[in-house]
Amino acid sequence: MPSTKKENQVTNLDAVVIGAGFSGLYMLYRLREAGLSTRAYEAAGGVGGVWYWNRYPGARCDSESIYYNYTFSEELYKEWSWTSRYPEQPEILRYLNFVADKFDLRKDIQFQTRIQSAHYDESSNRWNIRTEDGESISATYFITGVGCISTANIPNMKGLDNFKGDWYHTGHWPHEKVDFTGKRVGIIGTGSSGVQAIPVIAKEAAHLTVFQRTPQYTVPARNHPHTKEYIQQAKENFHEIKKTIRASLGGLPTPPSDRSALEDSPEVRQQVFEEAWKEGGPAILFSYADLLTNEDANETVSVFIRSKIREIVEDPETAEKLSPTYYYGTKRAIIDTDYFETYNRPNVSLVDVKKAPIQEITAQGIRTADAEYELDVIVFATGYDGMTGSLFKMDIRGKDDVSLKDKWENGSATSTYLGIATAGFPNMFMITGPESPSVLGNMPVAIEQHVEWVMDCIQYLRKHDIAAIEANADAEQAWSKHCRELADTTLYTKTESWYTGANIAGKARGFQIYVGGYGPYRDHCTEIAAKGYEGFSFITTANTVV
Ligand code: NA7
Questions:
Q1: Could you give the CA distance from residue 145 to residue 48 in angstroms, rounded to a whole number?
Q2: Cβ < 6 Å from ligand 1: which residues?
Q3: Distance from C-alpha of 251 to C-alpha of 195, rounded to nearest angstrom
Q4: Which residue in 101, 215, 437, 524 has the most C-beta neighbors within 10 A?
Q5: Are 510 and 480 in contact (CB under 8 A)?
Q6: Ligand 1: which of 148, 193, 330, 443 to mutate, most ligand atoms within 8 Å of CB?
Q7: Are strands 428-430 and 395-397 parallel, antiparallel or unpaired?
């Protein structure tokens, strides 16, 4: 790692990349390959992004391994072999370290460095960037690869400082093993992280109390090891896999059904859901075309999953508490290993904190409106300030010294052009930014598309001697409106979730994801570029806007 702490000196670069996860690593690689002087800045001590921090027990990916990786390099794809259908966090982290080593990326990553501010200077068309250590960097391009869900949400609960035991957030898990043996553990939150952690912690702890605000639909992952033959076949099918996932709606090869759930008789539908339940993973979500758009269709799958919960969970009262009522799939559709089964264990109990809210963390544990729970450890599986949280952690200022946070009114008026750029912030690119399809699919596929689009754009600017590119306000408004209109044709906006910002106290509500699917979105972005970056303005080297 180069030593770069140069007080009073300015490091001049072509491009600065924030983050060394899937986005940052690939962006860095492409910029460097194109001959741009580039450095990535990463707050963590190593590569990996969310996979560096999310080390909680049971953490694993919910996209199938053979698709949850880069496809830009056939050689890379063929050199790496995944061990199971849904890889665990340590394996994904090993993969990203392997990528960093293979392409010798580490030498251009400055670890343990948090970017404090990035201000655009209109007179020079450059970004002035400062680290928290006081280092100054000047760069033409400012590219964020900060992830969509990487800023931990630790609810502001009264009394946390008084707690005598240990507490952890799933997204900032210690590197050393947390030993739950013989401990009374409380876990708050039953999203993907809680659902993954609960069965694993329950096996170790003396007692696990789950504090649930909203019950979750979750379906079996049916994880299993991969055979050598299966992996070999995937490698042989590399080109086909790459082509299919890149054109798909959600970055996975299996297309969702084109049938309505309401076209089938109840008996046939039951059969379809049973088979999907057996197959596990995303099969249920993909079993009918209209589960996320039609309330009646959604009710059929919701009823089915609730019936499975009653079948699995022995205590009827617990089963009832675990049964969700919102539209299936409108919070992140979760897959699990033994989640509902875990509530049959004698050392696990479930507390409904919607009914009796948490009032205080005490020295001994958690006090809700109707009881006190003594605990040795509290695990916050309370999620993230999604989409904008990580961007707002930096003081990003564009033209006229306007901050991104102010422009987007703390998130309530978030608007972008294509989810990549935003008016008033020339030469700033967001990898999987708000209003891109990002989190509604298999992320590496979305990330590669953005990185490649940004790289092509930068090459175009350089070739045509253009100093800066900026999204036009009218194009941005039209894109935001289009995103909102599309979202309103679905059930997503009818449920409170981190997708809508509802999980963060005081955060403005808004659905900031493009729901039209990866493939159509890719085509649209490609067309915009082919039309000479329609909807963008160029600032020439003489500072004239064209
Ligand atoms: P999620 O999906 O946002 O889940 C967070 C959970 O924590 C969820 O059950 C929340 O209940 C609960 N929560 C949040 N704040 C509180 C408070 N104050 N009190 C009680 N319960 C609370 O985060 P995850 O980390 O599980 O998953 C994030 C994404 O990572 C996931 O979607 C995948 O894309 C990977 P709520 O449902 O809001 O009532």
A1: 11
A2: 149, 155, 170, 188-194, 213-214, 332, 353, 358, 381-384, 439, 498, 503
A3: 23
A4: 437
A5: no
A6: 193
A7: unpaired
Nearest CA to ligand 1 atom 30: 192
Do the Cβ atoms of 420 and 145 come closer than 8 Å?
Answer: no
Identify whether the C-beta of residue 173 lies closer than 8 Å to the C-beta of residue 55: yes
Structure token digits, residue 433: 């930014």
pLDDT score for 506: 77
CA of 188 to the centre of ligand 1 (A): 9
Predicted local distance difference test score (pLDDT) of residue 501: 78
Buried b (16+ CB within 10 A) or exposed e, 425-460: bbbbbbbbbbbbbbbbbbbbbbbbbbbbbbbbbbee
Instruction: From 247, 241, 245, 311, select the one nearest 273 (Cα to Cα).
Output: 311
Test site for ligand 1: of 213, 350, 432, most ligand atoms within 8 A of the Cβ: 213
531/524 Cα distance (integer angstroms)? 11
Q: Residue 309 in 3-state DSSP?
A: helix
Tell me the best of 503, 504, 509, 513 to mutate to test the pocket of ligand 1, counting ligand atoms within 8 Å of each CB and taking the most: 503
The model scores a pTM over 0.90: yes
**How long, in residues, is the chain?**
546
What does the pLDDT read at residue 6? Answer: 54
pLDDT lower than 70: segments of the chain: 1-8, 542-543
Helix 266-279 / helix 295-312 crossing angle, nearest 10 deg: 60
- For 29-60, give the secondary structure using H, E and C: HHHHHCCCCEEEECCCCCCCCHHHHCCCCCCE
Nearest to 246 by CA among 528, 448, 525: 448
Residue with CA at minimum distance from ligand 1 atom 6: 189
Give the integer Cα–Cα distance in Å for 18 and 1. 16
Q: Cα separation of 145 and 432, whole Å?
A: 8
Residue identified by tokens 């009796």 is: 356
Residue 220 to residues 18, 286, 331, 405: CA-CA distances in angstroms?
A: 35, 14, 17, 39
Per-residue pLDDT, 280: 96
Q: What is the pLDDT of residue 1?
A: 44
Give the tokens for residue 9: 């000196």
> 497 C-alpha to center of ligand 1: Å?
8
Q: So what's the pLDDT on residue 7?
A: 58
Distance (Å, whole) CA 23 – CA 531: 26
User: How much is the pLDDT for 542?
Assistant: 60
Beta bridge partners of 13: 139
* Closest among 143, 28, 38, 49 to 97, alpha carbons compared: 49
Closest C-alpha among 11, 13, 24 to residue 139: 13
